[in-house]
Design brief:
By secondary structure, the chain is α/β, with parallel strands linked by helices. It contains 20 helices and 18 strands. It is globular, with a radius of gyration of 33 Å.
Amino acid sequence: MILSAQEISKGYADKSILQTMSMDIEENDRIGLIGVNGAGKTTLLRLLSGMEEPDTGTVSRKKDLTVGYLRQHSGLSSGNTIREEMRLVFRELLALEEELRTLEAKLSSLDPMDADYEQLSAQYAAKQTYFEQNDGYLIDVNIKTILNGMGFADKAMDTVIDTLSGGEKTRLALAKLLLERPQLLILDEPTNHLDFETLIWLEEYLMDYKGALLIVSHDRYFLDKLVTKIWDLERGKLTVYPGNYTKSLQLKEDARVRRQKEYELQQEQIAAMEDFIARNIVRATTSKSAKSRRAQLANMEIIEPPEPPLKGSSLSFTFEKQTVRDVLTVSHLDLAVGEGETRRELVHDISFEIKRGEKIALIGANGIGKSTLLKTLQGILPAPKGEIIWGKHVKISYYEQENANLNHENTVLEELWGRFPTLPEHTIRTMLGRVLLTGDNVYKKVGVVSGGERAKLAFAIIMMEHANVLLLDEPTNHLDLMTKEILEKALLEFEGTLLFVSHDRYFLNKIPTRIFEMHPDHIEIFDGNYDYYREKRAILDAKEAEEEAARKQQERAERAQQSKERAYRSRKQKSEEAALRRQVKALEEEIFSLEEQQAALEEEITKPEIYEDYPVMSEKCALLEQVKNLTAQKYEEWEELSSRLS
């Protein structure tokens, strides 16, 4: 056990946040902490990490326990370069490396027979052993591995951190934490700002993490894949469920049903006992039995009924008139952002169709133009080229990713009522109540309320618009787990047409009937959900790799054929040519063998069992560099000999 919290509670002013609760963390625990927004998750993390002290109770930590805590919306801020900041993690080892260089210089200046030589040599050997055992020779390899995995492969190491975006700073803070490898790693919403590739890498890295993990996340797919225990924080109390997020939902419902049944059975028993007492307490023959029942009833431990589930938003999307079958046809469309010198083309010549009732998920690399496409389809942004044809009777509602289409100076009530001014205030307030925007919250400015509350206001607007086509850009951002589940149910029941952008893989598994993957010059269509897409994507990627290997082999064959077709007429020339051909052929065979070795090594270092084993990774990288250098040398020799044949 590395951490134990006993009977802790916490409140602020006169508001209780965490009621009396206890929990333990073992060495290799994988814990997911869940709860609605405002449940106290961040407060609990601050108590466990030592940033705050509980009002009551104690938090005990193993001696010398190292704790790493990535807070939500936090990131590095520094005038250091990326390289300088990452190397700070290895200050001790880097200082030791300097000591080793100093000792090496001293040893080289001493005679082995000198009295100080043996002592310095033993000191050097001990320090070098410690340096090797702590991966001192792999510092730069480890830094590069983590940075590449966290999406910084194309970012120069001398980039100054303060020039990075907020999302990049958060990712870099997480990369630094991973390099520190604390015994307890606490992560508050670590999947924000991550694209699919980086998210998958992080999942695989954390699955093999040598330490305990405590994670707050609204990414249900992430929780399902990674955690083996759920801490459910609700109404100030903590309940622990074994298994991942999906299993915890079932266990929670099973416990609620069981508690309700036990409560009802006991109530029936109590009613029967009270009835017996009332009928028999005054009868001489049965009074003794009635008194005994009364004593039993007085000593009975009463089962409280289960608390009702927390109230969630009530979402439903309806429309008055259905569209025609062909909802949208897009032909040879270009997308661009900016104007003049800042203009940048995103995609070129894309075409697709959407039919009535389809639920389409739009995915692709960050910056490819997914949000731009949604805006261009509505005419919010101009289309440089191409045709967009909406079918008859189409009525669109649009959910903007950061709700920038809301007037942040309006109050919540003004924003909704201003869009439907002919409706009575009661109707407007009723709709706000459905999304849990009530009381004083309706008089707060839109720019002041939380991101989750702005999202709910946007959903209230969409519900009142009664559109038959919904365009949603990252609709699950800012939503707690309960609201995500409610939104999913509403969209599954929606009988209109849906086109949405999302990075939420759980959401992508439940909602879409098709997935559109955007590329710079086309849209690739997959007839299924996210898991289906991943399966098909892996097959396509493998096929592309095979085709690339075949292309290289063909190029080698063509080069060999070209060398064979060169001829000389004189006997001396033919003799020299034959000798050159033999040398060229031998070189081509060497080059072919070296390229096969290079390809095999490049494939090996992408495997988790290799790139997570730093000594092996270093060895493979060094060998790969040797093979590349030797291949380049052999190509130079081949080109020189081939030029003499031409």
